[in-house]
Amino acid sequence: MKGTCVIAWLFSSLGWWRLAQPETDASQCQTTEHPVISYKEIGPWLREFRAKNAVDFSRLTFDPGQKELVVGARNYLFRLQLEDLSLIQAVEWECDEATKKACYSKGKSEEECQNYIRVLLVGGDRLFTCGTNAFTPVCTNRTLNNLTEIHDQISGMARCPYSPQHNSTALLTPGGELYAATAMDFPGRDPAIYRSLGILPPLRTAQYNSKWLNEPNFVSSYDIGNFTYFFFRENAVEHDCGKTVFSRAARVCKNDIGGRFLLEDTWTTFMKARLNCSRPGEVPFYYNELQSTFFLPELDLIYGIFTTNVNSIAASAVCVFNLSAISQVFNGPFKYQENSRSAWLPYPNPNPNFQCGTMDQGLYMNLTERSLQDAQRFILMHEVVQPVSLVPAFMEDDSRFSHMAVDVVQGRDMLVHVIYLATG
């Protein structure tokens, strides 16, 4: 919410998606108009928080034990009461003057040479948080119920973007591993999905290889079962007719330890697939650019906001994906290009029943030269992940939604999914 100094406890537009409706056929469900409630209509139920000089409320996380909300803004950390957003604690976290001067000397503006909070993760009674720190990213471990108490400070490189303009995502596993998808360098030309901290070896996606990541904008990440999933949009390397953006779901095994000779310090289990969100028709209308996701673990559903390209007519849609559909696509086949002049063709998955395995099988079990060559060549899946319904759950023209949240409530005779959508 860059450029604003208010946090609202509800987002700006509200839609209802009827997932199950007994005694009504499926076609009727899809054509029923969704009741929509505007921001103004829910105004009386909104709770707001404002703070002087605080802008860019970009990261929120919960402390469920204390029923508190922790918020990261530019140069500030806040603890708020969950019920009414009243302030519990405000902590200033600015860059020092020497760091700012170094930032200015590299041609950056005063606006850019601030500390934008981009990682905010709860682990037990600690808060792990990282900021851009005037293009010198830094991370701290703090006491969750007293944010002034800093236990240690480490470099934010490969954990937090240098620039506040670069999208990123991060998560912390129960085992203490940090997974971050971010730009690894000052100019932002080396994006990576990177694992650090914890007891497992640091690993990343292959460097300067567009078939792995091609100018990605990272959106979200989730720790699900044996895998860590990442959702992002990127320039489609497989698209031959000009530049276009596709949305992706990618995953890695959490116990991946990298290769020995090939793919050393690099993921051996990284795979990605395209997500399709489109309005059906004789010529489908595609919403190619993923902006936000929300995971409902109790139903294994991933909600996503998809928009048109910023240079085209503004339109947004919400599509919903089942985790099983994503897993099925990752079983293969792959989409493979022999060389830069070859066509992209389907290639059978050499390991269609792939499992992450267990650490007690031995650190380098099954890491043969052939398997590492396959892991290096076969990244992109041939099939496209399709949503649960042919028609998007929600569509709106002349709008670009940017954030979402979803709640499931029990109605009289069905489950109702309430979708909160925000612009700006």
Automatic annotation (TrEMBL):
Protein biosynthesis keyword on record: no
GO cellular component: extracellular region; plasma membrane
Localization (cell): Secreted
Superkingdom: Eukaryota
Record keywords: Developmental protein, Differentiation, Disulfide bond, Glycoprotein, Neurogenesis, Secreted, Signal
The keyword RNA-binding belongs to this UniProt entry's keyword annotation: no
Predominant location category: secreted
GO molecular function, one term: chemorepellent activity
SMART domains, sorted: Sema
Domain Sema span(s) in chain numbering: 34-424
Leader peptide range in chain numbering: 1-22
Gene Ontology annotations of biological process type: axon guidance; neural crest cell migration; positive regulation of cell migration; semaphorin-plexin signaling pathway
Pfam families (alphabetical): Sema (PF01403)
Designated name of the protein: Semaphorin-2A
